[in-house]
Write a structure and sequence with these properties.
By secondary structure, the chain is mainly alpha-helical. The protein contains seven helices and no strands.
């Protein structure tokens, strides 16, 4: 699954009717939270499947943030970097790139900075390259992460997002 297909499938569980500033804030906060969760499960030495699921959650928030800014993920290069770094170092890189991106979101919605679509696109690309690189280091790839996340979302929200199902998740 490529990122554009993923972005379209993931929107099924988004809440695009939210006020735009709130949508950006929730996506940015979610992205930061999920980056920390990825780092945490990597540091714990969690099993591959657990790490893939956490990376998938981060990808969802990245796709939601891109959608809220009107950015198509189809144009984003997601080829993993060539490196021999361990997953722990790569997860650290992911936390850094998401932090820089969410800082830009904060400046846009909290400080009144104009939207710089080129900058946001470049920062999203950095996040997705970090995701692809971390995934590759764990013997997976971004397509597998996306497919696993969409499968999880279909089980969790068969009829699209609902607050009730979010608060009473079966998994």
């Amino acid at each position: 699954m490529n990122l554009l297909k993923y972005q379209r499938a993931a929107l099924r569980t988004a809440q695009p009717t939210r006020e735009h500033t709130l949508r950006l804030a929730v996506a940015g906060l979610g992205l930061s939270e999920e980056a920390a969760e990825v780092l945490d499960v990597v540091r714990q030495g969690a099993e591959h499947d657990k790490v893939v699921l956490e990376i998938g959650d981060l990808v969802w928030y990245g796709a939601e943030l891109a959608s809220a800014f009107g950015i198509s993920l189809g144009a984003i290069d997601t080829h993993p970097r060539d490196c021999d770094d361990d997953p722990w170092s790569l997860a650290d890189d992911l936390v850094i790139s998401t932090g820089i991106l969410t800082g830009t979101v904060k400046k846009t919605i909290g400080h009144g900075h104009p939207v710089d679509e080129a900058k946001i696109t470049a920062l999203l690309q950095a996040v997705f390259v970090d995701v692809a690189t971390l995934s590759a280091s764990m013997g997976s790839d971004l397509a597998t992460v996306c497919e696993a996340n969409i499968a999880k979302l279909r089980r969790r929200y068969p009829d699209g997002f609902s607050t009730e199902r979010s608060q009473n998740r079966p998994d």
